[in-house]
Amino acid sequence: MIELEGLTKRYGEKVAVRDLTFTVRPGIVTGFLGPNGAGKSTTMRMILGLDHPTAGDVRIDGTHYDRLQDPLTYIGALLEAKGVHPGRSAYNHLLCLAQSNGIPERRVHEVLDAVGLTAVARKKAKGFSLGMGQRLGIAAALLGDPRIMMFDEPVNGLDPEGIHWIRTLMKSLAAQGRTVFVSSHLMSEMALTAEHLVVIGQGRLLADTSMADFIARNSRSYVRVRSPQRELLLDVLHQAGITAVESGDGTLEVDGWEAERIGELAAREQVVLHELSPQRASLEEAFMRLTAESVEYHAHTGTPAPVQAWGDGWKRG
User: Domain ABC transporter spans what residues (predicted)?
Assistant: First the structure.
């Protein structure tokens, strides 16, 4: 279990993390979400003692990280897959970690096999692709067979098979009663993996709830209806007390009514329907709605201004 209480981190005048209090519990995969610059990586670094909090406290199974003996046997983490000496082989990298944490050498072979790197175990890390580097980082996190696992963007560089593999791995670790804490920018992947969500924005806690509750509270579900008898359908819906909103593509959107009831009403009034489809809320939509005011870096839509030659340099027209 990971416990944060009033955790705060300042860098000069900038507050990266502000008064975070939440608990990451065992037995489920907890997703950690937030826009770029929200403070996710800083929070994870403070959990591992890599950054010291300005205020507050963070404990791993009731103990501060720097007081853990053989910490890899308590918590395994993937924060930066490139944190490997480029001239060291995958095997020697893991062996060094094992020896410094009292882990038997046989465990090195086990995790290399588990992540699919046995065939390249003696090759130097500098020749590894991004995906292979991710697998090596995951192997290091698994090395001590810890009760707590923490992953920052674990699917970076992985192919579809690798993404499915890490998703299955995290779920199986949680099913064993372990604590699994994972951050990712891939909403579709997080929706398939996490059961609980912790969401932060500009360093503040925005949500600490189940996946289902988060989506239900922060997004919209509606029924999409399309008919060649559009005006007649609008009259029928209006007479039944149903409000339909016209969308830009000629379809209607209905909130608060089940698709079955709308279909039965249309059939009774002999209105032809070409589409009747429930639009379920998504994690991405819920996340965008909740964090809209917390995004630090906004991209602007539209066509970029042309670049023209001017004198000896370039200026934007």
Answer: 2-227
